[in-house]
Amino acid sequence: MNATTERETAxxxxxxxxxxxxxxxxxxxxxxxxxxxxxxxxxxxRKYEEKLRAVATSWHDETARLIEA
Length: 69
Ligand SMILES: [Zn+2]
Fold this sequence. Notes:
- It is a single chain.
- This protein is of the alpha+beta class.
- It has two helices and three strands.
- Strands 2-1-3 form a three-stranded antiparallel beta sheet.
- The longest helix has 14 residues.
- It binds zinc ion.
- The site of zinc ion has 8 residues, from helix 1.
- Zinc ion binds next to helix 1.
């Protein structure tokens, strides 16, 4: 059991069809900014997280899938 205190969603919806807007890798993070959904891989999601969270109206993070078995 992981002691995860902050879990915004347990529902995964990103698929292999969803690609990072920056590099084209599989997306694991989706951020909605001004009504537009932006997708990022784990690397770029982390890289831009601080700036994006300040402006994003929603934040969807599926990076937990990368560390779960
Ligand atoms: Zn990327």
